[in-house]
Amino acid sequence: MSTALRRQTRIGVALAAAIIVCWLAIHISGIFFFRWSVGMIPVAAAMVLVQTWLSTGLFIIAHDAMHGALAPTHPRLNRAIGTVSLALYACLSYAALLPQHHDHHRHAGGAGDPDFHAGDPSLAGWFLQFFRTYYTHGQIVRITIVALIYTLLLGAPLGNIVIFWAIPALGAVAQLFVFGTWMPHRERAAPFADHHRTHSLSIGPIVSLLTCFHFGGYHHEHHLSPGTPWWGLPARRRDLADQSRG
């Protein structure tokens, strides 16, 4: 096993652990311990914004796991972290999403791509197709069961569940769709560079990190090198540029 892959595993697992721990801290404190007052409204708003970004991060962790890029030296750990991340995010099934995402890479921007629009490239039409693809009745049942446990057994206020779990999860869906699917894969005046049918957004590394953990600003690089984890995409762009010059 190469030193580079061991390093990738160490960094990937450490970053995943940090994101999961921070997400759980806001999730638990917001749902079970947050007490409302006028002065606490700005605090709640900040918590929701941060939790939305962290929820996007949970999906990106699972996405890296789907490519074996999270912990390449430990496949079982790789899959376990991906499974837990999707469950925390919105009770999503890793086993169900795994083949769908690989279909996206095999058929990017065409028939057979579950992330592509079904004939309506508008933002609203494409998002509706995206939502229908990934949100199932089984997921809604699982979310309902968790919410009932939180409220009936653990005494959590329903409003707190909505504000500190549902709203960040839906905000993350919007981030993932707009910056990770719609903007990179929609057709523009400039043609696509290759058969991956995707663009990288010109938004700079900081904005790229804040919007979608680099899956907007470096989306083409991801399709060229799906084994590169989210945190390695800026360096991968530099490597690809050096190779093209060489």
UniProtKB/TrEMBL annotation:
EC class: oxidoreductase
Superkingdom of the organism of origin: Bacteria
Protein name, as recorded: Fatty acid desaturase
Enzyme Commission no: 1.14.19.-
Keywords, ordered alphabetically: Membrane, Oxidoreductase, Transmembrane, Transmembrane helix
Transmembrane stretches, start-end: 12-34, 40-62, 140-156, 162-182
InterPro entries in alphabetical order: FA_desaturase_dom (IPR005804)
Domain Fatty acid desaturase stretches: 43-136, 140-243
GO molecular function ontology, one term from the record: oxidoreductase activity
A Pfam family annotated for this UniProt entry: FA_desaturase
